Amino acid sequence: MRRKVNIPNSKRIIGSLFIFLGITALAIVTPVGGLPQGSGETVLYQEDFEGGTANGWDLGGNWKVVQDAQGNWALHGQGHHWAQYTRDAWGDYTVKLRVKLIRGTIHLNYRVSNCTRYFIGFGEQSLYFNKTSPCENHQELRFLPERHSTERWYEIKITGKGNKIDIYVDGLLKISYVDPDPLLYGTIALETLEESEVYVDDITVLGQAPPTLGLRWTKTGGPLGGLGYDVRMRPDNPDMLYVTDAWSGVNMSEDGGHTWFASNKGIITRAGPSGDAIPIFSLTIDPHNPDIIWTGTQNTRGIYKSTDGGRKWVEKINGIVEQEGITFRGFTVDPRDSNIVYAAAEISSFAWTANGEERMGRYFDLVKGVVYKTTDGGEHWAAI
Ligand SMILES: [Ca+2]
Question: Which of 107, 147, 208, 326 is buried most, with the most CB atoms less than 10 Å from its CB?
Answer without folding.
Answer: 326
